[in-house]
Amino acid sequence: MKRLSLLIILIGAAMLSSCFGPVDKPDPLTAYKPVLMDRESLERSIVWKPATAIQSPAKIYYKDNYILISEHFKGVHIVDNTDPKNPLVKGYISVPGCVDMAMKENTLYVDNAVDLVAIDISQIAIGTIIVKKRIKETFPELVPPDGLSVPYKYSLANRPKNSVIVNWSK
Question: Which residues contact residue 123 at a Cβ distance below 8 angstroms, ignoring those fewer than 6 apart?
Protein backbone atom coordinates (compact mmCIF):
# COMPACT_ATOMS: atom_id res chain seq x y z
CA MET A 1 0.00 0.00 0.00
CA LYS A 2 2.89 2.38 0.80
CA ARG A 3 4.45 1.64 -2.58
CA LEU A 4 1.19 2.35 -4.37
CA SER A 5 0.80 5.66 -2.51
CA LEU A 6 4.40 6.59 -3.30
CA LEU A 7 3.88 5.69 -6.97
CA ILE A 8 0.74 7.85 -7.16
CA ILE A 9 2.57 10.79 -5.55
CA LEU A 10 5.50 10.46 -7.98
CA ILE A 11 3.24 10.28 -11.04
CA GLY A 12 1.27 13.30 -9.81
CA ALA A 13 4.48 15.26 -9.20
CA ALA A 14 5.74 14.38 -12.70
CA MET A 15 2.49 15.51 -14.24
CA LEU A 16 2.49 18.80 -12.33
CA SER A 17 6.12 19.52 -13.16
CA SER A 18 5.30 19.52 -16.86
CA CYS A 19 3.04 22.52 -16.23
CA PHE A 20 5.97 24.60 -15.06
CA GLY A 21 8.28 23.98 -18.03
CA PRO A 22 9.82 26.73 -20.15
CA VAL A 23 7.36 29.24 -21.56
CA ASP A 24 7.17 29.25 -25.36
CA LYS A 25 7.89 32.57 -27.00
CA PRO A 26 5.00 33.94 -29.07
CA ASP A 27 5.34 33.60 -32.83
CA PRO A 28 7.04 36.63 -34.41
CA LEU A 29 4.58 38.90 -36.20
CA THR A 30 4.92 40.12 -39.76
CA ALA A 31 5.75 43.73 -40.57
CA TYR A 32 3.54 43.52 -43.67
CA LYS A 33 0.00 44.87 -43.82
CA PRO A 34 -2.73 43.12 -45.79
CA VAL A 35 -4.29 44.70 -48.86
CA LEU A 36 -8.00 43.96 -48.58
CA MET A 37 -10.76 43.74 -51.16
CA ASP A 38 -14.43 43.21 -50.47
CA ARG A 39 -15.96 39.97 -51.80
CA GLU A 40 -18.16 41.71 -54.40
CA SER A 41 -15.19 43.61 -55.88
CA LEU A 42 -13.08 40.44 -55.87
CA GLU A 43 -15.68 38.64 -57.95
CA ARG A 44 -15.69 41.47 -60.53
CA SER A 45 -11.92 41.94 -60.54
CA ILE A 46 -10.91 39.59 -63.36
CA VAL A 47 -10.77 41.84 -66.42
CA TRP A 48 -8.71 42.37 -69.56
CA LYS A 49 -6.48 45.45 -69.35
CA PRO A 50 -3.92 47.13 -71.57
CA ALA A 51 -0.37 45.79 -71.39
CA THR A 52 1.68 46.80 -68.35
CA ALA A 53 5.31 46.32 -67.36
CA ILE A 54 6.17 42.98 -65.79
CA GLN A 55 7.63 43.58 -62.34
CA SER A 56 7.47 40.28 -60.48
CA PRO A 57 7.19 37.37 -62.95
CA ALA A 58 6.36 33.91 -61.66
CA LYS A 59 5.04 31.05 -63.84
CA ILE A 60 5.20 30.94 -67.62
CA TYR A 61 2.99 28.97 -70.03
CA TYR A 62 3.18 28.73 -73.80
CA LYS A 63 -0.09 28.24 -75.72
CA ASP A 64 -0.74 28.68 -79.47
CA ASN A 65 2.00 31.28 -80.04
CA TYR A 66 1.11 33.08 -76.82
CA ILE A 67 3.24 33.30 -73.71
CA LEU A 68 1.32 33.73 -70.46
CA ILE A 69 3.38 35.12 -67.59
CA SER A 70 1.86 35.30 -64.12
CA GLU A 71 2.77 38.12 -61.78
CA HIS A 72 2.48 37.53 -58.04
CA PHE A 73 -0.67 38.98 -56.48
CA LYS A 74 -1.59 40.88 -59.67
CA GLY A 75 -2.50 38.75 -62.69
CA VAL A 76 -1.32 37.32 -66.01
CA HIS A 77 0.51 39.08 -68.86
CA ILE A 78 -0.29 37.93 -72.42
CA VAL A 79 2.53 38.07 -74.99
CA ASP A 80 2.02 37.31 -78.69
CA ASN A 81 5.08 35.31 -79.73
CA THR A 82 4.09 34.66 -83.36
CA ASP A 83 7.34 36.41 -84.34
CA PRO A 84 9.83 35.31 -81.65
CA LYS A 85 12.26 38.06 -82.70
CA ASN A 86 9.58 40.68 -81.97
CA PRO A 87 7.28 39.49 -79.17
CA LEU A 88 4.30 41.77 -78.66
CA VAL A 89 2.71 42.28 -75.26
CA LYS A 90 -1.01 42.07 -76.08
CA GLY A 91 -2.55 42.77 -72.72
CA TYR A 92 -2.95 41.84 -69.15
CA ILE A 93 -5.56 39.83 -67.25
CA SER A 94 -6.04 41.48 -63.87
CA VAL A 95 -6.40 38.81 -61.16
CA PRO A 96 -5.90 40.28 -57.66
CA GLY A 97 -4.39 37.76 -55.28
CA CYS A 98 -3.02 35.58 -58.09
CA VAL A 99 -0.15 33.40 -56.92
CA ASP A 100 -0.45 30.39 -59.22
CA MET A 101 -1.89 29.40 -62.57
CA ALA A 102 -2.37 26.31 -64.71
CA MET A 103 -3.61 25.66 -68.24
CA LYS A 104 -5.73 22.99 -69.87
CA GLU A 105 -6.72 23.47 -73.49
CA ASN A 106 -8.28 26.96 -73.73
CA THR A 107 -8.93 27.32 -70.01
CA LEU A 108 -6.65 29.24 -67.70
CA TYR A 109 -7.04 28.30 -64.03
CA VAL A 110 -5.94 30.95 -61.53
CA ASP A 111 -6.29 31.62 -57.86
CA ASN A 112 -8.14 34.87 -57.25
CA ALA A 113 -7.02 35.20 -53.61
CA VAL A 114 -9.00 32.38 -51.91
CA ASP A 115 -11.11 31.43 -54.96
CA LEU A 116 -10.30 29.14 -57.89
CA VAL A 117 -11.34 30.68 -61.20
CA ALA A 118 -11.54 29.14 -64.69
CA ILE A 119 -11.09 31.64 -67.53
CA ASP A 120 -11.79 30.92 -71.21
CA ILE A 121 -8.86 32.42 -73.14
CA SER A 122 -9.83 31.12 -76.61
CA GLN A 123 -10.30 34.74 -77.76
CA ILE A 124 -7.22 36.42 -76.28
CA ALA A 125 -6.13 37.36 -79.82
CA ILE A 126 -8.88 40.00 -79.76
CA GLY A 127 -8.47 40.85 -76.08
CA THR A 128 -11.49 38.95 -74.83
CA ILE A 129 -11.66 36.68 -71.79
CA ILE A 130 -14.65 34.99 -70.18
CA VAL A 131 -14.81 33.86 -66.56
CA LYS A 132 -16.36 30.40 -66.89
CA LYS A 133 -16.46 29.30 -63.28
CA ARG A 134 -15.57 30.42 -59.76
CA ILE A 135 -15.23 28.10 -56.81
CA LYS A 136 -15.27 30.20 -53.65
CA GLU A 137 -13.03 29.63 -50.64
CA THR A 138 -10.95 26.93 -52.34
CA PHE A 139 -7.61 28.11 -50.96
CA PRO A 140 -6.40 29.34 -47.58
CA GLU A 141 -5.83 33.07 -47.14
CA LEU A 142 -2.68 34.56 -48.58
CA VAL A 143 0.14 34.61 -46.04
CA PRO A 144 2.65 37.45 -45.62
CA PRO A 145 5.72 37.22 -47.90
CA ASP A 146 8.02 36.80 -44.89
CA GLY A 147 6.03 33.78 -43.67
CA LEU A 148 5.54 35.26 -40.19
CA SER A 149 2.30 35.29 -38.23
CA VAL A 150 -0.51 37.70 -39.04
CA PRO A 151 -1.11 40.23 -36.21
CA TYR A 152 -4.42 39.81 -34.39
CA LYS A 153 -5.67 43.20 -35.61
CA TYR A 154 -5.62 41.80 -39.19
CA SER A 155 -7.21 38.46 -38.34
CA LEU A 156 -10.44 37.45 -40.01
CA ALA A 157 -12.41 38.33 -36.87
CA ASN A 158 -11.06 41.91 -36.79
CA ARG A 159 -11.39 42.84 -40.46
CA PRO A 160 -14.43 44.22 -42.25
CA LYS A 161 -16.96 41.51 -43.07
CA ASN A 162 -16.64 39.94 -46.52
CA SER A 163 -13.09 41.23 -46.96
CA VAL A 164 -10.37 39.12 -48.57
CA ILE A 165 -6.58 39.55 -48.50
CA VAL A 166 -5.35 40.03 -52.09
CA ASN A 167 -1.80 41.27 -51.43
CA TRP A 168 0.62 42.40 -48.72
CA SER A 169 2.46 45.73 -48.45
CA LYS A 170 5.32 46.97 -46.29
Answer: 129, 130
CB atoms within 10 A of CB 45: 19
pTM confidence score: 0.81
Which range marks the domain in which residue 98 is found? 23-169
- Whichever domain contains 81, its CATH number is 2.40.128
Look at residue 49 and tell me if it is in a domain. Answer: yes
Residue 94 lies in a domain: yes
Q: What is the pLDDT along the chain (170 residues), one digit of tens a residue?
A: 666 565 566 566 566 555 554 556 677 899 999 999 999 999 999 999 999 999 989 999 999 999 999 999 999 999 999 999 999 999 999 999 999 999 999 999 999 999 999 999 999 989 999 999 999 999 999 999 999 998 888 888 999 999 999 999 99
Residue 85, Cβ density class (10 Å: 0-12 exposed, 13-18 middle, ≥19 buried): exposed
Total domain count, the chain: 1
Residue 142, domain member (yes or no): yes
What are the φ/ψ torsions at residue 16 (nearest 5 degrees)? -70, -35
